[in-house]
Design brief:
2 copies of one chain form a homodimer. The first copy, chain A, is an alpha/beta fold. Helix content of chain A is 42%, strand content 26%. Chain A contains 14 helices and 17 strands. In chain A, the strands form 4 sheets. In chain A, strands 2-1-3-8-7-6 form a 6-stranded mixed beta sheet, sandwiched between helices. In chain A, a hairpin with a 2-residue loop joins strand 7 and strand 8. Strand 2 of chain A pairs antiparallel with strand 2 of chain B, so a sheet runs across the interface.
């Protein structure tokens, strides 16, 4: 079965809001094994809405609308859909009472045009709105399923999960199960070449790489009759992939690199302190996003000025004079210094040129040194990054996080 | 003129990501006075992409694609569009060199399939990618404009603003000119009440408030035959609004609160140091986003642990024992301490409970103290914030930035 999502609302076409409803519904439907082939946004316009719906009916088994169920004249989703499906709108007494009750509960006078919301297509399954006034509805006609949901996410999401999901699930046989592997330290195209044979020979599960800023995710999706079979199929492919990619696979599902690193620190009880220059606190900020990190993340220092590097980290003035603030030597002394002075297990430091100014031929914008110090050793990575200040700072923080991760799991 | 936006990407249909590109482009096009009637998302599938494009060509003057320009086999936007427009793909030498240069600059080996990205439809206007590998292109054929842009927002947005916007603007008659005022420290509804009479009596320019995390933006949009007239109309309304809102108007256009504050510091040559606890470096990170800030932002300290507050900032153990780490007294000592020890003009400090854990009845999650110390005085703001850890940290950093801003312009 395939589905299509149609969001109705001029505010979307004006760019005033993002269509998060489409993402939510796509995710839910993919879990049901239903392929979403199209997402469309159309305005509150009778003709364009009509064309869009007719087009959708011709190509999709399930058509889900969000928005346009409001009380005002320009909300005409229900009227338009009912017209095309040749279903008259009838007053649904229970819904009317619910709407009246809703206004009573918030001590507001119900305006006359809210009654409009209680009129629903004849023979539809009424979907009650537990968080607002507009009821939704589900229509099954000529082998198609048409669903209308309200636009506000806080009303739409529970309505879908509680009332639509169960109905659609009961009509689907195959279930879709998917797993995401998160990878850092290899580019999308190199990764595809690395896995080319696996990706090409796989049809179920399928393997879809997706690159996003600095990292790559691999989605393994299996379509089977039951979850056990799906999980097994996925596991087999996952093993192969993990063997190929090894340590570059840092996580699964929704977990971010900073989350993985922070949780590793917490699990292993490793204390850490950071000394940052060009990233200005970005590494510390990412490390501290995870609740409970305060037990491991002792302190962070943003030593922009040379004095602060000397005062707070004990970097020697000679090193600064001889090699400069952006140098491997300074990075190493920063890492050692922050570790010793904070009395922690691991010290990490960053110094570099984020740009746009401050670059030179021998030390160009994007040159960054990331160093780590532990009880027994001290090492430094040289990064040469491209892009603007924001990207250089972000990539640096991710490379630093990955350096910590590799140390913790080694 | 009307336009249609087509985002290509299976990750969108799977609900892995939200289609923020469509919002961005819709907003830009509305500024050009172009009506966006449809936004569509379609997968990396030849036939469905073909149908979608043909359908779009029949109903829209401008069709803008995002995504599917990547190096991998499943990226086939360019190939499909070129086929329908009967334009052969030709190697664009300059783009190939740019791509090679990009990989050289990041010291990575260019994988063979990246060459694919340098093949572009014959006769198109090549749109260079300043932040990635895939060039975009603009095709004018049979009175239609077809644009292909890369999927990653950081590559797509500047490409549209710098290379596509000017071309489309030159083809539209009535120009739309708009100005955005950025406001912090007043809620959307209070702001609407404050400006109700102005907003209602205005038709050209129109005034549209929009609330986003912690701040409100006001978009003033005039539609005129020439820019001078538009600017004059806007200026008149802007004056009225600024008189009403006073100091809460912190900026214009795209400038962020952190940018405004950092630039104020740089202009006024005021040096600053920050001491953060619950925000874990977020304030420092925001302050240091602006190039050139290193001359003013001397250092930042993330003093998570009590020892670090004592050691690095000179907070007295008594204060910590008597009032606790999250208290006005501690915040004030942190601000004074970081100012004195860094020998800067202004010290700012943050201590609070970001949650989800660590709250109590008298000190609930969301309780945050932000203090400032200058040569002559020292003061503290108590914040009681709602929401999750991320929101509390972000709102805190913005309130702190606004505190600095108000001090600098007072």
């Amino acid at each position: 079965m395939n589905a299509e999502i149609i969001a109705v609302g001029t505010e979307l076409l004006l760019g005033q809001i993002v269509n998060t409803n489409a993402q939510f519904l796509s995710l839910q439907l993919s879990q049901l094994g239903i392929d979403v082939y199209f997402q469309t946004v159309v305005g509150d316009n009778h003709n364009r809405l009509k064309d869009t719906f007719q087009h959708a009916l011709n190509r999709s088994d399930i058509v889900i609308f969000t928005g346009g169920l409001g009380p005002t004249k320009d909300d005409l989703t229900k009227e338009t859909i009912a017209e095309i499906l040749a279903l008259p709108l009838e007053l649904h007494e229970e819904s009317l009472q619910r709407i009246k009750g809703f206004f009573k509960s918030i001590h507001r006078q119900m305006s006359h045009n809210n009654e409009k919301q209680a009129y629903l297509p004849k023979g539809c399954t009424v979907l009650q709105n537990d968080y607002g006034t507009a009821p939704g509805c589900l229509i099954e006609k000529d082998g198609k399923i048409v669903v209308m949901l309200p636009g506000p996410p806080r009303e739409m999401k529970p309505m879908f999960n509680n009332y639509v999901f169960p109905i659609i699930r009961s009509e689907t046989s195959d279930i879709i199960y998917s797993k995401v592997l998160r990878i850092f330290g290899i580019g999308e195209s190199s990764l595809e070449e690395e896995l080319a044979d696996i990706i090409e020979t796989q049809s179920n599960p399928t393997i879809a790489p997706y690159a996003k800023e600095g990292e790559v995710t691999l989605r393994i999706t299996a379509k089977c009759e039951n979850e056990e079979e799906a999980q097994e199929r996925i596991q087999q492919v996952e093993q192969k992939i993990r063997q190929r990619l090894g340590i570059t696979v840092y996580g699964e599902g929704e977990e971010s690199l900073e989350e993985v690193v922070s949780n590793l620190l917490i699990q292993k009880g490793v204390t850490i302190a950071a000394a940052e220059s060009c990233t200005g606190g970005l590494l510390a900020e990412k490390l501290s996003r995870t609740p409970g990190i305060s037990s491991c993340f002792n302190r962070g220092m943003i030593t922009y000025s040379n004095e602060s590097k000397v005062e707070l980290l004990g970097v020697s003035q000679e090193t600064l004079n001889q090699y400069g603030a952006v140098s491997e030597q300074t990075a190493l002394e920063m890492a050692k210094g922050v570790r010793e002075r904070s009395k922690v297990d691991v010290g990490i430091s960053i110094t570099g040129i984020a740009g746009p100014g401050g670059g030179s031929t021998e030390k160009p914008v994007g040159l960054v040194y990331v160093a780590m110090a532990t009880e027994h050793k001290c090492w430094c990575q040289t990064l040469r990054l491209a892009g603007n200040r924001e990207r250089i700072r972000n990539m640096t923080s991710m490379r630093a996080l990955d350096m910590i991760r590799r140390y913790l799991i080694s």
